[in-house]
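Appendix C reproduces, verbatim, an entry submitted by the partner laboratory led by Prof. M.T., so that reviewers can inspect both the input and the predicted structure.
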Amino acid sequence: MWQKKDRILDPPVTEVTASTPLKAHFDDSDCRKEESITYGSSDVDSQKASSDSLKDSKSQRLRSYFHHNREPLPDHSDIYFGKADWRSIANLLLAIYATLFSTISLAIAIWQPRYGKWISPTGHLKPSTADLLFSLLAKSIEIASAGLYISFLGQFLTRRSLQSRGISLADIALREWLIQPGFAIWNWGNLKNASTTVLGFASLLAAIAIYFFTAASNSLVSPHIALGKWETTQFLGQVRQNFGNVIVLKKDCWAPIDSLVDSQNIGESCVNVLASGLAHQDFNNYMKQWSKVIMGGSNASSSLSFRPPATSSIFTDTKVQGSWVQESSSDISVNFAKYGRVVNNITLSMPHPVVYYSAQAEFPDPVKGTGFGEHSVKASVVSPTSNTLCVNMQQSEVAPLIYVEWPNARFTSSDNGHKIAAKDWYKDTTNTSLQSNLSQTHVERIFRWGPTYNRSFPIFPQWPIDFNSITNISVPKSDSIYLLVKSPNTTDYTICQMYGVLSQDCSTKHTQKVGTRTLSSDCDADALSFGSTIAPASFRPSPSKDFRDILGAWATAMGLNGGMLSSNSSLVHVLSQFVVTNSSNQVPSLNKTMPSISEALAVLSNSMLMKASINATFDNRTIKGAPTPPVFFPYNVVVQTQQYRSGPPAPWQGILYPILVIIFAVNWYCLMYFLREMGLVVDFLEPQNLFNVAIDSPSESKRRKAGEGPVENHDSDAWMLRRDHDRRLFFKKVGEEGSLGGGKRDGRLFIGFEVS
């Protein structure tokens, strides 16, 4: 009964509108008594306010809500914070921060930058430190975005509650989705009612995006080790000389012998020792590959591309591998059908060493455990290439090229009747011309000798015995060296021609992983070959006469001229047995159980081929006055690197991109909203403010059972904020007289701040 009496004694609740005279509810003295009290709001149902005030700034529009027939309230009402208020400024700064950094995060995730040396175990920022900084940034964006959207909901719904449209309890519950992640799940009614509206559905998406933003950012934005895509760029290469400059090779050769002691031969002797060491090591590795093939119970193919490749030991920390090229001209069966003899023509392209040195300068050594620094490079540079052409000839065909068979030749005979040429035999060959009948050997077209090709033929001093060879490394104006070999497996003699050239048909590939490094030539219809980067027919490579001198030093160091003394060199003993023969009625082809002599000679000389390319040109330019001081030139490469970068570590993690996009869109929308609505109003969705309004609202307890909350359609019904005659705010259902709340206080509205 006391509650009923107390309710009867309460003054009646009367709604204050713009058309209701304030004098009917309180006079001037009442206003003066409450000057020192802060009130929470004023009547917002001011639909009859003047049109001029509605077109003014935000403060003027808000003032229209509190305009009555008697006099307007001051510009800054009791629930409106001006544009210059610190709360409005702080809220705008929060919006700017969240929007700016969510935009940056999305841009990084899409761009997927690689951080190179900036983030690395030896770089400016350690990976662990970078991971922590990115995680802190992601968390700060998540917190700022949540706070920004909560503020937006409070401002948007409070302003709407002050209008005739009102808000529902489902709208008020949107705020809880961000504060309590599980609220939307166990309050299915609110979720069902709210998600059917544009604001509710947008809030649901925003809440989900905020929940998972840090996880998405850690996956898509934080740096992690990954192998990137192939990218086009340029490297710089050092150039001092043209290909095959023996002068530079002698100067750069390491020898602890003072030039004052041996100024004439120290450079040449050093190069010979270097050539011999590299050649024997390369040859041993090549023989090991063949032995493994045979010991494995299988044979190699007669197709050149499937036979063991040539390798070089020029770099001790790198596996260097070449490519057999021009297979069409290497087919012994085809050549036999064409020329009626065994023609063993082998072309070998090696990678250019400039890529090795450039990669060392561009990339750090890979880090064990993470793989940071692993990379692959494909460079559009020329490839140092050697051609070895060995042709079997009958003794009568070779005889015109043997000095001791010439009329008036000077020689001595050994005990077994072998003719030995005089030591100065070469003096008798100086007047030999290209037109000489000596060149009629039936192989001019194969070796391209004679006036038609403007190339001289070689002359050998004498016949080599079985298992021996004799060289001619000084054919006048020639670009090749020659080797005369006698195999014990045939009555024919074999003449081999060797030269070097820069080929435009291959690219150079450099790959480095933890513990391994490879440098190889790639000649399989490679679109990155140097020839594909220049105009057709603009580069016509020709055999290098400079490299002929290096091949001569190599041949001397290898003892290939030991046949002059019938020295029975172990190396030549092996080489002579690699000669391809035609001892049966079958068409000859490459032996499947051992290499050919041309393959073996190409392998033996490949390290000098690469040595002659160090600091040499890697394109179609020619250096005048070489050697010169070092000059750097660019060349095109495509690079794939293993380093720290942003982006999804695995393709399926791309499903997290919508989270970053939603946060980006939500933050931008909120920022635009607050730039338009600069001043804030009191957020009546905050629990303390909502509580104060609720307890000042007339009770609807008779509609509810004891202990129950909102019933019937309260979740979906619209409620408006209005004032009673004591200027207290209460909720009123749109279109009805009822109100939501319980009881009445002492006549003053407390909304969390004081008014002087």
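The longest helix spans residues 127-161. Additional entries are available on request from the coordinating office.
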